[in-house]
Structures are given as C-alpha cells and as structure tokens.
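Q: Okay, next protein. This is ATPase, RecA superfamily from Thermococcus kodakarensis. I've checked the sequence twice, so it should be correct. Can you predict the 3D structure?
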Amino acid sequence: MYVGELLKNLDRIPSGVPGLDELIGGGFLPGRVYVVTGPPGSGKTTLGMQFLAEGAKNDEKGLFIALFETPDIIVRDMLRYNLGILEYVNSKKIVFYDLGEILLSANRELSWDELFKLLLEIIKRENAKRVVIDSFSLFESFVTNPEGKKKELGRFVRKLRTMDITTLLLSEMLSSEKYTDEYYLADGVIVLHHFMRNYQMVRAIQILKMRGVPHDSNLKRMRFTNEGITVYKEAPI
Ligand SMILES: Nc1ncnc2c1ncn2[C@@H]1O[C@H](COP(=O)(O)OP(=O)(O)OP(=O)(O)O)[C@@H](O)[C@H]1O
Ligand SMILES: [Mg+2]
C-alpha cells in the first residue's frame, strides 16, 4: 500500500457496520454530516447504534438524540445484538438524550433556529465525537416555520463541521422521489431498502451520495445478523 493511501485511511471514521466501510472508501469522513434514510423497519436505528458502538469501542463518546422512541426502549431492542451496548451505556461512552420528551412536554412549537440552537447546546454539553439523531425528519412536527429550514440547517451543518463531530441524521423515507433539504446539505446519503421478491423480503443498502469518495451506487445485499446489519459486496438479487 502507498503511504498516501495509508494516510487517507487514517482519516476515516469506521462506520461499525461490517462491509459498509469498503463501499465508502474506508469509512465516513470526520466532521461530516450524513443522512441515513429508509422505510419503516429498514434498519436505521440499528445502523445508528452500530456507529455509536464502534466509536465507544475506540473510546470516542457517542450521543444518541431520540425524538419519539424512548432511550430505554431503544437500548432494550438493541440488546439482542452483540454490540456491547449495555456496557457502553453504563460507562457513559454512549449517552442518550430524550429530546422528544423535552419537546413534547414544552408544549410549544419552536422555530428551526431555536431547535438547532438547542441541538448544538446538547451536543456541546455532552462533548461527543459521534452523534446520531433519530429521527431527524420528526423535527418537522415540532416547528413553527417550515420555510426557514434550509438556511438554519445549513448553519447547523457548518457548525458541526467546525466542532469535528461526525453526525448521522436518521431520516424517514416518505417517497423515493421526494428529497428534503438534508439530502442536499449532507455530505452523504445512505438509503436502506427492503422489498419483496418471490415472497421473500430482500434487504439492501445503497450509497446514493458520498461527497469526495468515488463509490458504487448500486444496491448491495444487507442482512440483519447477531452483530446488527452486515453489508455484502453482491447485488441483493
Ligand atoms: N434478525 C432479523 N431478521 C430479519 N429482520 C430483522 C432482524 N432483526 C431486526 N429485523 C428487522 O429490523 C427492524 C428493526 O430495525 P430498526 O429499528 O433499526 O429499523 P428502523 O429503520 O429504525 O425502523 P423505524 O422506521 O420503525 O424506526 C425490526 O422491526 C425487524 O423488522
Ligand atoms: Mg428507528
């Protein structure tokens, strides 16, 4: 391997998903913001937890900001994978923040500006290196000014980059033709798919966009294993 290649590899944030890093040039780029989107039950939360567990394994603190699912339920659901989640939660290498509870009990809607300020405050306070927001699309139900999103999201993404925090925005896929602002502003978009083929559920992953990384955008097979999601090199069918 050339020295240049080695240096390039050093500068990567491993995803924690077996097989995924090979598709994205060795891992995520530090300080960048990525969208992970997909239909219900496609594996978004699992992928997010694998990402945080990988960081925790390497002593990088991870922050999971939960909107509608409560942290105790998320942890309980993730315990069936061999990711060491409980140990990381107990040692505070993975920290949960129940933002949904705060927003629901505040009983008032916020502007995008206020929402992103709140998020940055939480992220700064926790001093995490990896952040997962589950799910980012749910913020839409808490804001007063939907039209102000793009500008404030742009500001938020810029700020995260300066803080050297790698962030996954988990996002619900409402339609495969409707792209929301985060798709454009994020540095990468990963799509999780599931569809029926001969009465069998087939799962697949697609790198829709990954700035600065030459990649293949074809669907790759994906399965749930005891370690969470695993990605394979071959096409799903
Ligand atoms: N071993 C398995 N085999 C098949 N499917 C599995 C397995 N483990 C989990 N699943 C599926 O994965 C789903 C859980 O994945 P996860 O919660 O990460 O999805 P999600 O995209 O976050 O879903 P939601 O949109 O509901 O938040 C389960 O609901 C189940 O359908
Ligand atoms: Mg989920």
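A: Here is a summary of the prediction. Residues 112-126 form the longest helix (15 residues). The longest strand covers residues 200-210.
Q: Noted. On to the next one.
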